[in-house]
Design a protein that fits this description.
8-stranded parallel β-sheet, TIM Barrel, about 300 residues, alpha/beta, 12 helices, 8 strands
C-alpha cells in the first residue's frame, strides 16, 4: 500500500460519480494505490463510485472498506452481520474480494472472538485478504490480539484512529504502545483535521463558502476555533522558514512515525490529490520533531 492513501468519504456526499472518477484517476497517476471507503459513506454510494472508478484497474489497487459504523444495526460484529455486510460491500464495489476489511467501531454487544472467527472464515474463502479495526482503545487492541492468539486465527493487522499534529491522543492513551506490542500497523484518519492543517483557515475569519467546515456548520466547532488556528499559524511559519507548507509538515510528520503504514486524506479535486501525494517528501529529523513538540506545547 502507498504511504499516502485516498480517503473516499467525500464520494456521494460532496462530489458525484464523475468528480470521484477524476479524483481516483489523479490518485493513481500520483502513485496512490490505497483507497479507503466505508459502507456508511454516502449511504453506500462511495463504495459504488470507487468500484466503478477502479474496475478496469482492479488488480493495481488496494481497496479498503469498513463496516459496522453508526447506524449499522445492533450487533455489527456477530457472524451473521459480518457476512451480510461483506456481501453487500462486494456487490457495491463490483469486486470479488476486499483487500482490507475493517470494523468501523467496536461492537460492545458481541464477543470479539465471534467477530474474528467470522473474519477468518471470509479470509479462508478469499473474500477478504486482510483485516483491521477502527476507533479501538488500547485495551480493545490487547484483547483482540490475545483472543486471536488463543483461537489460532489471524489478528487485526491494523487500527485506524484519529491522529494528527493537533490530535495526539494515540500517543497518550496507549494505542500506539499497543501497536508496538502487537506489530499492528497504524492508519491515521483526519490527518489534516478536515482542512485545518492545510493553512486555508485563518484566525478571526469564518470558513470560506464551499469548504467542508463551512458545510458542517456547528459540527465544525470540534475542529476549528481561534486558539487552534493560532497554533496552525505558528506551525505554518515554522514550516515556511524551512521551505515547506504546513500541509507538508502535517503529512510528513505522520509518515516519519514508523508505526504509520499509510496516511489517508480525502480530496474533492485532482489538484488536492496531487498536493497531498507530494506532501510527504520532507524527511523530519528527531530534532525537528522535538522542536515541533515544543512549539505545540506553547
Amino acid at each position: 500500500m502507498s504511504v499516502v492513501g485516498l480517503g473516499c468519504n467525500n464520494f456521494g456526499m460532496r462530489i458525484d460519480a464523475r468528480a470521484a472518477a477524476a479524483v481516483v484517476d489523479a490518485a493513481i497517476e500520483a502513485g496512490i494505490n490505497y483507497f479507503d471507503t466505508a459502507e456508511s459513506y454516502g449511504g453506500g454510494q462511495s463504495e459504488e463510485m470507487l468500484g466503478a472508478a477502479v474496475a478496469s484497474r482492479r488488480d493495481a489497487v488496494v481497496i479498503a472498506t469498513k463496516w459496522g459504523g453508526r447506524g449499522a444495526g445492533d450487533h455489527p460484529g456477530d457472524a451473521t452481520s459480518v457476512r451480510a455486510a461483506v456481501e453487500a460491500s462486494l456487490e457495491r464495489l463490483g469486486t470479488d474480494r476486499i483487500d482490507h476489511y475493517q470494523l468501523h467501531r467496536p461492537d460492545p454487544t458481541t464477543p470479539i472472538a465471534d467477530t474474528l472467527g467470522a473474519l477468518a472464515a471470509l479470509r479462508d474463502e478469499g473474500k477478504v485478504r486482510e483485516i483491521g479495526c477502527s476507533n479501538f482503545t488500547a485495551d480493545q487492541l490487547d484483547e483482540a490480539a490475545s483472543v486471536a492468539s488463543e483461537l489460532g486465527v489471524h489478528p487485526f493487522a491494523s487500527v485506524q484512529n484519529h491522529y494528527s499534529l493537533l490530535t495526539r491522543d494515540p500517543e497518550m492513551n496507549g494505542v500506539l504502545d499497543a501497536c508496538r506490542r502487537h506489530g499492528t500497523a497504524f492508519v491515521p484518519y483526519f490527518p489534516l483535521e478536515s482542512g485545518v492543517l492545510t493553512g486555508k483557515y485563518r484566525p478571526g475569519e469564518p470558513p470560506a463558502e464551499g469548504t467542508r467546515l463551512a458545510a458542517w456548520g456547528e459540527r465544525a466547532a470540534a475542529f476549528i476555533d481561534d486558539a487552534r488556528l493560532a497554533v496552525v499559524d505558528e506551525l505554518r511559519r515554522w514550516a515556511e522558514q524551512r521551505g515547506h507548507t504546513v500541509l507538508d509538515l502535517a503529512m510528513s510528520w505522520l509518515v516519519s512515525n514508523p508505526l504509520v503504514a499509510s496516511v489517508i486524506s480525502g480530496a474533492t479535486s485532482p489538484a488536492q490529490v496531487r498536493t497531498n501525494a507530494a506532501a510527504v517528501g520532507w524527511t523530519l529529523t528527531p530534532d525537528d520533531r522535538n522542536e515541533i513538540d515544543r512549539l505545540l506545547a506553547g
